[in-house]
């Protein structure tokens, strides 16, 4: 299953140059983030031996000896409905709504291939429906297996993406932090007890308290994970480069998660301290991390350190990579926007747009510069023209939210223009699209 989903979870979503609402401090999209773990990105393990792979599943065996033996509990059992179709039905009637044809949990196979189809189409509510369908029919001896935990990883990831935080909390609690013998198995080669719990699922479990309003608990959970990962790295042989590389990536993932929580609490100095640890490690994309540090300095007005960080980012650029060149231009535009030099910022963004076409974040920032330069109509026309030229690329939630806000400022006909966008979504958006970006309520 990992291989079937790897290509999408690794490559979809926003480009690393994006700095929109769907990315973390490193500019990674939701799907890039969960693909950091070997469960959805096995490139690092392609040439690994079976003993190497066992070292990727190391985890402390729990002290609790009792097994879990209850059937799975679900907070969402009824099929989730498509909000876009409901809105179209409300404003245009059933005939128009019935033109919306999407794959769903009943029209695809109940397996990894079916999940892959739904994810690629952005049908995240249907993913939740299908994971329930798959998990709810497992027999008792299939409940705690590598397969079932991979499905749970997908389900919890999508629940969090869709902001079903309470539901994700209810469903994760039944696993008791995965500290039960159910989540371990004996290896064939060494008879070592290792875990089949996806590492990313452990991280999501640790982060969840933050989404429920208790960031201190999440930080405590993440630091516990970090301590375990550091010990694993300490005990690994220096010769096992495959395992060391994966565990270092996992260490950095935890540090990114900690930084994101600290930023949400406006503890910027501590967040920068953590990010510097990543920058000083063997993290592969130094250009990305130093760019992130620069943006963070800018958040609290330290333009000197922001500029210096962006300069460091540029020194780590690979000129052969458009993504690096694009990010450097975004950094320059960011400094210009902070200085209210919108014309100069717009020019940098135009260059970036040539390097990374179809990037909604660049388009969003270009419209931002036009608006603050006093060109409201031009900002609207820019976004509208891009949507019309390539709706599959530009029907982005944050972009549409900003466009609808511009409509409210520009015209008394804002409602009609929003409804026109709704018709675009009826054709091109999956059922996971956040309809509230249209501001129709």
Description:
The chain has 441 residues and is mainly α. Helix content is 61%, strand content 1%. The chain has 22 helices and two strands. Strands 1-2 form a two-stranded antiparallel ribbon. Strand 1 and strand 2 form a beta hairpin. Mean pLDDT is 88; it is low at 1-47.
Features:
mainly alpha; two-stranded antiparallel sheet; 61% helix; disordered N terminus
Question: How would the blueprint of this fold be written?
Answer:
Elements: H1 2-11, H2 30-34, H3 50-55, H4 83-92, H5 94-97, H6 112-120, H7 124-135, H8 146-161, H9 165-173, E1 184-186, E2 193-195, H10 199-211, H11 215-235, H12 241-264, H13 268-279, H14 286-299, H15 303-315, H16 322-338, H17 342-355, H18 360-372, H19 376-389, H20 391-394, H21 397-410, H22 414-428
Antiparallel strand pairs: 1-2
